[in-house]
Amino acid sequence: MRTNQPRTIYLSEYQVPAFLVDHVDLRFELFEDGARVHSTLTIRRNPEFPDQGEALVLDGDSLVLESVRMNGEAVPENGYQLKGEQLLVPEVPDHFELTVVTWIEPQNNTRLEGLYKSSGMFCTQCEAEGFRCITFFPDRPDVMARFRTRIEADRAAYPVLLSNGNDVDRGELVDGRHFVTWEDPFPKPCYLFALVAGDLVEKRDTFHTCSGRDIDLRIYVESRNAQKCDHAMDSLKRSMRWDEEVYGREYDLDIFMIVAVDDFNMGAMENKGLNIFNSSCVLASPDTATDAAFQRIEAIVAHEYFHNWSGNRVTCRDWFQLSLKEGFTVFRDAEFSADMGSPTVKRIEDATLMRTAQFAEDAGPMAHPVRPASYMEISNFYTLTIYEKGAEVVRMIHTLLGPELFRKGSDLYFERHDGQAVTTDDFVRAMEDASGRDLGQFRRWYEQAGTPVLDVSDEYDADQGVYRLKVQQRIPDTPGQTDKQPQHIPFALGLLGADGADLPLALADGDTDVPASRVLELTEAEHTFEFHGLAERPVPSLLRGFSAPVRVHYPWTRDQLMFLASHDSDGFNRWDAGQRLAVDVIQALEGQADDGEVDARLIDAYRRLLNDATLDQALVAKMLNLPSLAYLIELAKEADVQALHRAREKVLTTLAGTLREDLLACYHRNDDSDDYQLTPEAIARRSLRNTALAWLLRIDDAEACDLARVQFDRASNMTDQMGALRALVNSGFAAERGEVLDGFYQRWQDDPQVVEQWFSVQAASTEAGHLGKIRALLTHPAFEWTNPNKVRSVIGAFAGQNLSEFHQDDASGYRFLAEQVRRLDDLNPQIAARLVAPLTRWRKFAPVYREGMKTALEMIRDKDGLSRDVYEVVHKSLA
Ligand code: ARG
Ligand code: ZN
């Protein structure tokens, strides 16, 4: 067992850096057995640092130090110290040049941090603290320097040599080697440094900026992927245009490059001028990628591009401020996606992610504020709270200020802080200064963890025509935080009359010019709002558009929910009412004997949805999805997974059985023989058709089985082929399932992105993903322990999506996960720590699950040499 506990880092201990680095000159000699890195730093003391006699301390990690020189002179071995992983030089002048040579082994780097090899190419990932795995450096985002980078490698194996900025020099060297030198004119923190060396093909295009400059756009991929770049390139151009139009942000370098790599811990990385992407987040063609993948790629390309301003030009002072760039950038990419597709559908997807996964995180042992106060390992804080809740916080500022003042605020933020490393508070201050609004109380959103709960009750006074709405807010305790103060919450609502239309919202008697939807501002623990001039008792439509990341409790009747689901003028709340109705029906069936009846009103609602072609079909496609098992678990006090699963299955199979004819009609009506198009309408058609197919196969309908097989064979795009495959895999037709799975693998075995989908469709399936099958997938020739996508597509999909198989009362699923985490911890701690997540909320489950989850956490805790990443998650979960 690990004896010394990793150190906790506190925001309250922040100090400005003792030294600043103005310039970094790097020379990489890349070889098959390692790489030599020559780094020359131009350093000066920071006049703002209190002690001007401070020693120079540089961060390092897994480096072999070869030599140190100061202003060109060799520093003798007693002139510096290696302390832990850091390099300490006690006596240094106020200005100097330090040259350090280190040796590293990218070919053995399975952590995928710093410089490593992936499918034969060299690449880097430096955020958050990977640069210290390359050379000694003050590895913190508030040290910003200009970088010049020379890369030397064998020309035949590595014809393409890339780094940030512009290529300023290139040439031949002896022994078939060559070099390219890159210079980045913009000072940047080292986490934005990138290097790529490989045998890659280049896909080029040009973007004409608003000020008339031509930007050279390049996507680099392995030659087998040359046909999979078009969508990313189009997405990039749309993002660049959108950022000019909506935020007034123009691109600043002459070249913008994207590189696809197969082994990558996260989705993608916004390195200045040289974005590096997980292959699965950039490569797509209609025959290999689903609609969901196309949309994800568009969003991620946009996200990384938008970071050029929200992240790179203005960066974070320290890693506690991570949401400064991530929350803001997720908000920006969400608005972009809304503009490119269906805004209501995008909002439903984001709210679903928040309510299913972020609320769970915020109620668990790893709960932390959007601006955390402490951490052990920063990699563990690339969370849904930092990204998604952080984006919701920015969205609330947008809602409170309105679009014009918000834009004034963002203009001021970029202008005031260009070239600086700043804090979330600086962001909020810019919004305040530009708008004149006081966001003092609003700042609690950054400081307090936990999901606020709004308890809403109402009364109607028929004599006076007054409707009173009482809203109480409370914020649950989270680790280390109790007795929280009320937050400033924008609460959008409407009131529906008996005819389904919005009633005017008059907050005082005789109000004229009253809107049909309004945003109330909650600032106190309790408010009572009075609406006047109402001749009838309204049905409230609360938190329209998910105007704040909160839980709303209100005692809607099923009839009211039915009514909202078919009449609410707010598309989001129509969907939400349908979900609440379905949740209520499932919860009521939970634990009932098999003869429990499914409320006929739910069946009616689904029948109407399936048959009403006048509705927005994209919204209908979303409304058809039943609440997920993960969401039902999140809503439960003490989740009995198997009971919830059975109740949900009962509702699903009852709906499918009763609505069989309607589903078949829906399937045929949405038969889409046109060319593959990526419009919201075409996506909705494919989604409806595949949902209908999936439901029919859940009741083992023979006609649907035939339809699925034909669709599988004839599909002209991956969405339809995968739709048929998934439906068959999740059916009881075992022979057909085996056949299509084999056929699919035979056809696509050479395409890693498709093989990942093949793994996950099985691992996530209740029918096909029993533990024995999961173990078999781990020994499949296409499975690779060192490839995070493969690990996620089998182990992650099983523990995160196949909940009824993972949560077995004999704890076999938990033990399995613990074994895999222990194995991965030595290879890739970041990935191992993420896989622990499904176990962390053990307290939330019924006793029969709880003990097994806890024991699995203890199994992980007791591993020798546990990484800091896994240590933090496991110990906080058991605390
Ligand atoms: N900044 C990247 C993005 O959101 C994520 C990089 C995360 N890296 C990590 N090692 N946690 O676009
Ligand atoms: Zn990001």
How would you portray this structure in words?
The protein has 879 residues and is α+β, with helices and mostly antiparallel strands. Helix content is 41%, strand content 21%. An eight-stranded mixed beta sheet has the order 6-5-9-3-2-12-15-14, with no helix packed on it. Strands 17-18-19-21-20 form a five-stranded mixed beta sheet, covered by helices on one side. The model has no long low-confidence stretch (mean pLDDT 97). Zinc ion (ZN) binds next to helix 3. Residues 23-192 form the Aminopeptidase N-like N-terminal domain.
Task: Give the helix/strand layout.
Elements: E1 9-10, E2 19-31, E3 34-45, E4 56-58, E5 64-70, E6 73-74, E7 81-83, E8 86-89, E9 95-104, E10 114-118, E11 121-125, E12 144-154, E13 160-163, E14 166-172, E15 177-189, E16 195-198, E17 201-208, E18 214-221, H1 230-247, E19 255-261, E20 268-269, E21 274-278, H2 291-306, E22 315-316, H3 322-340, H4 343-362, E23 374-375, H5 384-417, E24 421-422, H6 424-435, H7 444-447, E25 453-461, E26 466-474, E27 489-496, E28 518-522, E29 526-531, E30 539-542, E31 551-553, H8 558-567, H9 571-589, H10 600-611, H11 617-624, H12 629-635, H13 641-658, H14 660-669, H15 680-698, H16 702-714, H17 718-729, H18 734-748, H19 752-763, H20 771-778, H21 788-801, H22 803-806, H23 812-827, H24 829-835, H25 837-840, H26 847-861, H27 868-878
The structure holds arginine (ARG) and zinc ion.
Keywords: Aminopeptidase, Hydrolase, Metal-binding, Metalloprotease, Protease, Zinc
Domain Peptidase M1 membrane alanine aminopeptidase: 232-445
InterPro entries: Aminopeptidase_N-like_N, Aminopeptidase_N-like_N_sf, PepN_Ig-like_sf, Peptidase_M1, Peptidase_M1_dom, Peptidase_M1_pepN, Peptidase_M1_pepN_C, Peptidase_M1_pepN_C_sf
